Amino acid sequence: MIPKQESMNTQAVKRHGCTVALAAFTLLVAPAGAQDAGSSEPVTGDAAVQQLEAILQQTQSLSAAVVQLQVDQDGRELQESQAELVMQKPSNFYWELTEPYAELMVTDGDLIWRYEPDLEQVTIQPFDAELDRTPIMLLNGNAQDIAATYDVSMGTMDDRGISRFILVPRSPSRLFERLAVTFRNAELIEMQFEDSLGQQTSLSFENIVRNQPLADDQFRFTPPAGVEIIDTTED
């Protein structure tokens, strides 16, 4: 079967959006630490990591509707996307893009499947949970891994329960130079990424459901009949 063709620009936007989505996953699954709930002073270093870890510990699974917006360095909108996110500790992840095109990415922590219906193609590869490559996996990280990978500061924390963390990779990142994560109490409400070219991507989370039981088979994928399968696990 010959895959359908699409423009290089469309492919680049799709790859970037898909990678950013997976990037938002590594942060949600961390053990608890101390939290100074009334503080509005900036917090940095180990104290900020511990506060972030304390928030992450309160979520074992999450499902949400996601609006993803990409803008260039001049503030011009490149693309707005809509998706469904389902994730479960330690490393289960389901991302289904519904607008403006269909795409599915699923991992059980061992393999990752990426299904592109418009290309009639499924790619299967080993899952890589390195925090600097897949920052959404940050939602699954522990304090030691987070501190080793990022410089963390807590920018704001107010009496409405809004807390915002800024994470800067300690090593050069191919994906982003700065990541901001915002919570309302323990509920993730926004993630923002900025890359070396100034392009920004934001993920806004709506209709959030936390800590509900999820079936293991939701995080596995059986390719439809007739599609091209690219299986890099056999290399």
Protein architecture, described:
The relative contact order is 0.22. The protein has a single domain, classed as outer membrane lipoprotein receptor (LolB), chain A. With 235 residues, it is mostly beta strands. Helices cover 15% and strands 41% of the residues. Strands 1-8-9-10-11-12-2-3-4-5-6-7-13 form a 13-stranded mixed beta sheet.
Low-confidence stretches: 1-10, 26-39
> Roughly how much helix do the residues carry, as a percent range?
10-25%
Structural class: mainly beta
Q: Under the CATH scheme, which architecture would be assigned? A: Clam
Largest sheet: 13 strands, mixed
- Cα separation of the termini: 21 Å
Overall residue-averaged pLDDT value = 80
Task: Tell the overall outline.
Answer: globular
Number of domains: 1
- State the helix count: 3
Strand and helix map with partners:
Layout: H1 8-23, E1 43-44, H2 45-56, E2 61-71, E3 77-88, E4 92-99, E5 103-107, E6 111-116, E7 121-126, H3 143-149, E8 150-157, E9 162-169, E10 178-184, E11 187-194, E12 200-210, E13 228-231
Parallel strand pairs: 7-13
Antiparallel strand pairs: 1-8, 2-3, 2-12, 3-4, 4-5, 5-6, 6-7, 8-9, 9-10, 10-11, 11-12
